[in-house]
């Protein structure tokens, strides 16, 4: 009697688990995200003078049967390439094949994809920042501080002079005095161009969300604005959780549960990463950790929010950072 009862209970549970696995398998997909920067100084790496590039075409290439797939970067330099199903992209690379304007003369090397997470058949990969380059470096890029001085200009040799026929007592020959030329000085360096506030600073800084809400610090919003939507800043996973109409300004005022706290602190960390290149997390790391927390449990979302909050307060391990804000003009 007990055996039929056990079978009666276990059979529906097995059917439900099977159907859940089938649904997750059908809805599973693989996403590749990353950023493209304009390498204005052609130094082959991200620097103070580089900025996210809009309209660059990126392709994902694999040695096997997958790819190539491509996407074009948005206003923030982000690209997102989607593959249907759970695809193993180990060994695949991302590279720039086309870029607009002055940054379309050359491209940096391809970057290998790195797995961020894999969850119920869905996976997300990323790659190191890709670079597009202009034909020549910009005029305000750093130059060699010790240029070799130009060679002094020598006077041309004087033509030979014909001597008169010898006399019994020839007059002494008077040689012309050597011509001394003034030294040739190198041309002065052009004045250093001050960059607009759009570019992030090299100074290490971290500011909490209360600072970003103050009107006297509005000029520190870079790359994104208070009216930028959460969906555009963090991607489709965040759009599914918070909706298409919520802005970053709304997200900074979120509180009450783990996911609104996560959005507030993740938005603050994203703004800090755009403001300072030496913030604890890069903008790509903030977006990746945010999406991973949204796909996990409530406990994971709260834990990620608390980690972002410590970084925004300027404390991460033994490192300490201060807020570099001063009132805007």
From TrEMBL:
Transmembrane segments: none annotated. InterPro entries: Protodermal_1. It comes from the Eukaryota. Residues 141-169 are annotated as: Disordered. Keywords: Signal. Residues 1-28 form the signal peptide. Residues 147-169 have a biased composition (Pro residues). PANTHER family: POLLEN OLE E 1 ALLERGEN AND EXTENSIN FAMILY PROTEIN, PROTODERMAL FACTOR 1. This is Pollen Ole e 1 allergen and extensin family protein. It comes from Rhynchospora pubera. The lineage of its organism: Eukaryota, Viridiplantae, Streptophyta, Embryophyta, Tracheophyta.
């Amino acid at each position: 009697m007990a055996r039929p009862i056990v079978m009666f209970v276990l059979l529906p549970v097995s059917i439900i688990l099977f159907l859940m696995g089938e649904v997750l398998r059908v809805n599973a997909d693989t996403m590749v995200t990353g950023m493209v920067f304009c390498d204005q100084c052609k130094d082959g790496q991200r620097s103070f003078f580089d900025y996210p590039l809009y309209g660059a075409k990126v392709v994902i290439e694999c040695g096997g049967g997958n790819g190539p797939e491509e996407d074009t970067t948005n206003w923030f330099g982000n690209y997102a390439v989607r593959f249907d199903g759970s695809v193993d992209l180990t060994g695949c690379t991302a590279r720039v094949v086309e870029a607009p304007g002055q940054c379309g003369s050359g491209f940096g090397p391809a970057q290998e994809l790195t797995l961020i997470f894999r969850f119920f058949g869905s996976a997300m990969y990323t790659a190191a920042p890709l670079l597009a380059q202009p034909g020549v470096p910009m005029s305000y890029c750093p130059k060699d501080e010790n240029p070799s001085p130009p060679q002094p200009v020598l006077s041309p040799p004087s033509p030979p002079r014909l001597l008169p026929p010898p006399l019994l007592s020839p007059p002494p020959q008077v040689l012309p005095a050597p011509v001394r030329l003034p030294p040739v000085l190198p041309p002065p360096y052009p004045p250093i161009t001050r960059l607009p506030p759009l570019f992030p600073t090299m100074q290490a800084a971290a500011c909490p969300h209360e600072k970003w809400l103050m009107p006297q610090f509005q000029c520190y919003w870079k790359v994104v604005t208070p009216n930028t939507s959460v969906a555009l800043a963090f991607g489709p996973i965040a759009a599914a959780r918070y909706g298409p109409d919520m802005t970053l300004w709304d997200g900074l005022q979120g509180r009450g549960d783990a996911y609104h706290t996560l959005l507030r602190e993740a938005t603050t960390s994203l703004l800090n990463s755009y403001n300072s290149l030496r913030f604890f997390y890069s903008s790509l790391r903030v977006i990746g950790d945010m999406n991973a927390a949204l796909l996990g449990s409530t406990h994971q979302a709260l834990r990620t929010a608390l980690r972002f909050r410590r970084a925004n307060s300027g404390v991460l391990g033994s490192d300490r950072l201060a807020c570099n804000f001063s009132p805007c003009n």
